[in-house]
């Protein structure tokens, strides 16, 4: 079964809707240089406290150093950290030691074949990888929420090269998620803009997305 992570959760009501629809993880976006879905850390903590057992609450952070990330997580109290940018050397190990029991997901922005080597080098330090379509090299970094797809064949090569679960993100919607799953065969899929209208979670788009994932799973990808 392909897991579904609904990102850019903005309110407790959106969180409930996503859980009721079958999401196994909820993305809560803290301060970012660009992109949608940013909410305050008090709001993140309030939503995370209400997430039921068995569903991951995921803090998205653009911080690079362990001390800042640890302070954020301890304020927000999520079960999982999603690091949306490259972090300082040794950060993953420090997070492991100082935040026992908190899962670590590293985002990789798939820009070219060099992303395969980056994924292999990173995977051994984290619990999962999330493949997205941002561009950290831009003057104002794009670290997610772009609504763009990337090269899914390259994402499949990354998935085959690492021994950690891989989530696929970037421009997914009910219209293309089945094809994305067929090509990449990820552990899970991540969606923000593809289930939203005017920035708000759209129940019809959410239901269509979940059903498209289910149909793909029923066909065995």
How would you describe this structure in keywords?
TIM Barrel, 10 strands, eight-stranded parallel beta barrel, alpha/beta
Strand order of the largest sheet: 1-2-3-4-5-6-7-8
Q: Measure the end-to-end span.
A: 10 Å
Work out the helix count.
Answer: 8
Radius of gyration: 16 Å
- Shape verdict: globular
Query: What's the CATH class label?
Result: Alpha Beta
CATH superfamily: Aldolase class I
CATH topology grouping: TIM Barrel
Number of strands: 10
What is the name of the CATH architecture? Alpha-Beta Barrel
In percent, how much strand structure appears in the residues?
15-25%
Binned, the helix content reads 25-40%
Outline the biggest β-sheet: 8 strands, parallel, barrel
Uncertain runs are: none
Count of structural domains: 1
Structural class: alpha/beta
> What is the H/E string?
EHEHEHEHEHEHEHEEEH
Please state the average pLDDT score.
91
Give an account of the 3D structure.
This protein is α/β, with parallel strands linked by helices and 221 residues long. It has one domain (3-218): TIM Barrel. It has helices spanning 12-21, 41-48, 66-76, 91-98, 114-123, 152-161, 177-184, 203-218, and strands at residues 3-6, 25-29, 56-61, 80-83, 103-109, 128-132, 166-168, 188-191, 196-197, 200-201. The strands form two sheets. An eight-stranded parallel β-barrel has the order 1-2-3-4-5-6-7-8, surrounded by six helices. A two-stranded antiparallel sheet has the order 9-10. Strand 1, helix 1 (12-21) and strand 2 (25-29) form a beta-alpha-beta unit. Helix 7 (177-184) packs parallel to helix 8 (203-218). The model has no long low-confidence stretch (mean pLDDT 91).
